[in-house]
Design goal:
alpha/beta; FAD/NAD(P)-binding domain; about 30% helix
């Protein structure tokens, strides 16, 4: 039996759910195929217990549905799963579960996409046909563990971070975490809190920021250049954490938001790990040279014994295993060849979502006003459906492209509202204004600071962020307007 529809969506993660919801609002028939027995399986089955959204909730909303007003700024794993379930129910998204795609090819004669699917519940082969195909399996399809010499000889427990739940079973054990991204750093923190003797392998330079620093940067990107925001945020990071090289960490040469936009590499959002590293409760180690039984040799020649290894080394795409006619949309690693924001559209009605190397990012209201793609199909009915698909992709793309969008769009119609949001960050900026000229050699920042200094009073106040002392702004209400004007100009 062959089932037909207009749009076939492979993957029921946040990207696939959002696209289906947008299409449903425009009455475009679609089918979502999901290999697991539930939607958002990465969140529900393969994420650790203490996980929270690393960005504020307004940057993590799916199209057309904000988080409840009483939701915390940084939503928990449980809260986000509840939000996704409510989203699916509200927009009548009905994924077809237990469907593993074995192949997807384009029939040039019929002008349709043909997908061969394995129904794993009954071990049956099914066929689906659609005018459009949206690949929404994302970049986190399968956990990646690097090939390390001798790893097979390790006698202890080896797991990928997608199987890690909490540190309760590791109490009193020597555990090595490989990977210093957000997952690796947070898992190391959780293990240490659970009584494990924890070490972490740090192979590459990394930016370490607080959640509030990232939130501040996301707001400032609406008003000033990425270069200036990186300078401001790096100054705050240096004031807060000091010289990271003292603890075995190195900062990249490029700024955190520049790297996010150009390479997809995220800064580490500190949840308390740095304090434990500074206190030597978590030991930082270089890359692994080889494994010999329980002993692991590192690049610096040091050899240590461990009871378990947790690989927080990321994921890989599985698109190349089943997509046959991609028309050059994906490279050999299963990632789009083109860079954001031109990566999402292929040939013959092929699209992708969740592949911008950006993770889960918010969708701002004015993002929905993104310019529509030009259509060159002469058939009006097909053009209208293609338009609906592309609008849905465009809306949903901001789940994973918010930072790139924030960096490129300039001023928005929501400018006044965003200026008001800056009120939450005035303590940070107040301290920055007083201390930035001591550590910054950026001429633009220096000029900005000098222009603001004339509005200081002689009253001193204590900063709750860095526990330093600096001048207090003279008229705080006037500053809200003036700071906004300076940032906009």
């Amino acid at each position: 039996m062959q089932k037909e529809t207009v749009v076939l969506i492979v993957g029921a993660g946040p990207a696939g759910l959002a696209i289906s919801a947008c299409l449903n609002l425009q009455n475009v028939p679609n089918i979502v195929l999901e290999k697991e027995d539930l939607c958002a399986s990465l969140w529900k089955k393969r994420s650790y217990d203490r996980l929270k959204l690393h960005l504020a909730k307004q940057f993590c909303e799916l199209p057309h549905m904000p988080f409840p007003q009483n939701a915390p700024t940084f939503v928990s794993k449980t809260g986000f799963i509840q939000y996704l379930d409510n989203y699916v129910s509200h927009f009548n998204v009905n994924p077809v579960y237990h469907r593993t795609v074995e192949s997807a090819s384009f029939d040039k004669r019929g002008g349709k996409w043909l997908i061969i699917v394995r129904n794993t519940l009954f071990n049956m082969v099914e066929k689906y046909e659609g005018t459009f195909l949206v690949v929404a399996t994302g970049e986190n399809s399968e956990g990646y563990i690097p090939n390390i010499p001798g790893l097979g000889s390790f006698c202890g427990e080896v797991m990928h971070s997608n199987h890690y739940e909490n540190g309760k079973t590791f109490d009193g054990k020597n555990v090595l975490v490989v990977g210093c991204g957000n997952s690796g750093m947070e898992i190391a923190y959780d293990l240490s809190n659970s009584g494990a003797q924890t070490s972490i392998v740090v192979r590459s330079p990394v930016h370490v920021l607080t959640k509030r620093m990232v939130q501040l940067g996301m707001v400032l990107l609406k008003f000033v250049t990425c270069e200036l925001v990186d300078n401001i945020i790096l100054t705050l990071s240096k004031l807060n954490y000091g010289n990271l090289s003292d603890y075995g960490l190195q900062r990249p040469k490029q700024g955190p938001f520049y790297l996010k936009n150009t390479t997809g590499r995220s800064p580490v959002i500190d949840v308390g790990t740095m304090e434990k590293i500074k206190a030597q409760k978590i030991k930082v180690l270089p890359s692994i040279r080889k494994v010999n039984g329980d002993y692991i040799q590192f690049a610096n020649g040091e050899t240590k014994s461990f009871d378990a290894i947790v690989f927080a080394t990321g994921y890989k795409s599985t698109v190349r295993k089943w997509l046959k006619d991609d028309g050059g949309l994906f490279n050999e690693e299963g990632m789009p060849k083109k860079r954001v924001p031109n990566h999402w559209k292929g040939e013959n009605g092929l699209y992708c979502a969740g592949f911008s190397r950006g993770g889960l990012y918010g969708i701002s209201n004015d993002a929905k006003g993104r310019k529509e793609a030009e259509l060159d199909n002469a058939d009006h009915e097909l053009s209208s459906k293609r338009k609906a698909v592309e609008e849905s992709i465009n809306e949903n793309s901001f789940i994973t492209e918010a930072i790139a969008w924030e960096m490129s769009r300039g001023l928005t119609s929501g400018c006044e509202q965003d200026i008001k949001k800056l009120e939450n960050y005035l303590p940070l900026l107040e301290n920055l204004v007083h201390h930035v000229d001591l550590v910054s050699n950026n001429h633009r920042i220096t000029c900005w600071i000098l222009d603001l200094k004339i509005r200081w009073s002689i009253t001193l106040t204590s900063s709750s962020i860095f526990h330093l002392h600096g001048p207090k702004f003279y008229q705080i209400n006037d500053l809200h307007f003036e700071l906004g004007m300076i940032l906009v100009i």
